[in-house]
C-alpha cells in the first residue's frame, strides 16, 4: 500500500502542468470526456507497466543508498523540468484539434507516444527502484489519470484561464521536497 500511495501522490503532482494535461484539455474540447479518459488510462497503464519493469531491473542491480541518492537528484531534476514548463507545439495542438479518427484510438496513441521519455515515465521508473512494482504501477497510473481527469474537468469549465504558473511552481516545490527527503534519508540512514 505504501508504494501505491507514494506513487499516486508523486505522479499526480508530476502530471500537474505537464504536456499531457494540455493534450487532455485539447482532446476534451474535440471529443466527449469518457473516451478521452479511457484512452489516457490505456496508454498510461501500458507506459507505466514498462516503467516499473525498468525500475525493478535497475533497483535489483544497484545498492539502496545509491538508488536513494540518484532518485533524490532525479526528483530535483524533475523540479527544474517542471519550472521550465511544458507546452504543446503548434503541430501537436493542430493534430489534436483536427483528428477525426476514433477518439479512443487517437487519444491512446497520442498519449502513449507523448509519455515515452516524459518526466512521469522517468518518475515512475525512479519510484519502482525503491517500491514494489504492482503498487507503483497501480498508484502511478491512477495518479496520472486523476490529474488528467482534473485537467479535463477544469479545462471544460474554465477554458484556457488556468493559473499555469501557480500549478507549475507548486509541482516544482513538491518535487524538490521529495528529492531533498530522498537524499537526506540516504545520507542519514
UniProtKB/TrEMBL annotation:
<feature type="transmembrane region" description="Helical">
    <location>
        <begin position="64"/>
        <end position="83"/>
    </location>
</feature>
<protein>
    <recommendedName>
        <fullName>GDT1 family protein</fullName>
    </recommendedName>
</protein>
<feature type="transmembrane region" description="Helical">
    <location>
        <begin position="104"/>
        <end position="128"/>
    </location>
</feature>
<dbReference type="Pfam" id="PF01169">
    <property type="entry name" value="GDT1"/>
</dbReference>
<comment type="similarity">
    <text>Belongs to the GDT1 family.</text>
</comment>
<keyword id="KW-0812">Transmembrane</keyword>
<dbReference type="InterPro" id="IPR001727">
    <property type="entry name" value="GDT1-like"/>
</dbReference>
<feature type="transmembrane region" description="Helical">
    <location>
        <begin position="166"/>
        <end position="188"/>
    </location>
</feature>
<feature type="transmembrane region" description="Helical">
    <location>
        <begin position="34"/>
        <end position="58"/>
    </location>
</feature>
<feature type="transmembrane region" description="Helical">
    <location>
        <begin position="134"/>
        <end position="154"/>
    </location>
</feature>
<keyword id="KW-1133">Transmembrane helix</keyword>
<keyword id="KW-0472">Membrane</keyword>
